[in-house]
């Protein structure tokens, strides 16, 4: 009896092992589900990539052309997606980042394998910290040659996993469409960010070209030769099995966290009792799905003085009585309620130390880690909401319909701002012994700038100075690196901005104009 049971278990394990091996080799897929058809078809995987991008509203693909990814670029161009070639891969990613921020769609960059991808690392990290939805498409060595010393072959997945919300390596042509749809949805869901898909070269070229590379000119004789030949032939069939079956390329649902009704009601009660409230608006407030014009109306309805940071600069126009640019530290210490709408208590807010411990604090952020950053040390929120800042502001405004912040509070802050700006203007008028006065340059550009201009601020201290002096004329008319503070974003950002808004002037500022950043503080 025991021997029979042991034999049964052994047979079961053996059968299970064979089934697993057959699955891994793609034999089950080919046997029961799909066959390789159209052996001479000129179709290729790049066409599938392009079809998904078009279905998701992508208008531009930024690149530095390489052989690994050429089929994608050719297919995109045929479908009306504009291919924009740059001279460095980082510039391509910066341009895609700008498109993502200004258009509300996913920015797309495609680069070749190996050094093409390693050149993008800084730009991808910048997009991650700026919370920009971005798809990075990378070429790769052929599936059977990875790890065997092929040209430009490195472990690309390990490189990008810490930088991206989602990483995938396509292993067959049929995987392209579902992998692309999943990646594009993840890039926009929750806290937006970059995603990466690796395309081995044999998943992108037509069957008849790939099959030539799989041929063995002088296979080993005997059983080993037959096994090698069969394995290569099977791998090729599995690579293209089910490749051209009709698949849905439309966008998958995007998940955006929202505040609960109870959380919104609690915030309504806190704001209604406040005498000196302040709103700190961050870049997250500009993210889809809430239109920036609707957010502007909501802020004006609330009547609460606002400090605008990052992409939210320009949200209230050029000369709004609610937009306060100066003396933020003093205002926060005096406020009895602070609403952090997509703003993070990192170095930009002295890690939360500038917040008055007696103030009621409402924090809204899509990312839980950013929502509570440093709350265990220097500050503590009364209400912490993991949700979308833009839609929260609309619901808060609706719940406070008819309620207005006491007018003397924003008037007092505005009067303090006028005094501070007069002093700063005096510094701008100072003569310099050498080079230009950076504050004077910024004032002059702001005075001459057209109303439809987009400002691209590139640099360190220079960006800080520009943020206090230059006044974007409307929403989504300001671009800066973000929390990572990357130098060199200007060229790519300006390229992406001009393509998104061809009718607008794009004003790019960089400290090298002034022969040194030391003067720009």
From TrEMBL:
InterPro entries associated with the record: DHS-like_NAD/FAD-binding_dom, THDP-binding, Thiamin_PyroP_enz_cen_dom, Thiamin_PyroP_enz_TPP-bd_dom, TPP_enz, TPP_enzyme_TPP-bd
Catalytic activity annotation: (2R)-hydroxyhexadecanoyl-CoA = pentadecanal + formyl-CoA; 2-hydroxyoctadecanoyl-CoA = heptadecanal + formyl-CoA
An MF annotation (GO) of this entry: magnesium ion binding
UniProt topology in membrane: Single-pass membrane protein
Subcellular location: Endoplasmic reticulum membrane
Gene Ontology cellular-component terms listed: acetolactate synthase complex; endoplasmic reticulum membrane
Domain Thiamine pyrophosphate enzyme N-terminal TPP-binding: start-end pairs: 44-159
Cofactors (names): Mg(2+); thiamine diphosphate
Domain Thiamine pyrophosphate enzyme TPP-binding: 458-506
SUPFAM superfamilies named in the record: DHS-like NAD/FAD-binding domain, Thiamin diphosphate-binding fold (THDP-binding)
Ranges of residues in domain Thiamine pyrophosphate enzyme central: 264-395
TM spans (from-to): 7-32
Gene3D superfamilies associated with the record: 3.40.50.970, TPP-binding domain
GO biological process terms, semicolon-separated: fatty acid metabolic process; isoleucine biosynthetic process; L-valine biosynthetic process
Keywords: Endoplasmic reticulum, Fatty acid metabolism, Lipid metabolism, Lyase, Magnesium, Membrane, Metal-binding, Thiamine pyrophosphate, Transmembrane, Transmembrane helix
Pfam family, one: TPP_enzyme_M
Entry's family note: Belongs to the TPP enzyme family.
Record-given protein name: 2-hydroxyacyl-CoA lyase 2
Naturally occurring in which organism (per UniProt): Oncorhynchus kisutch (Coho salmon)
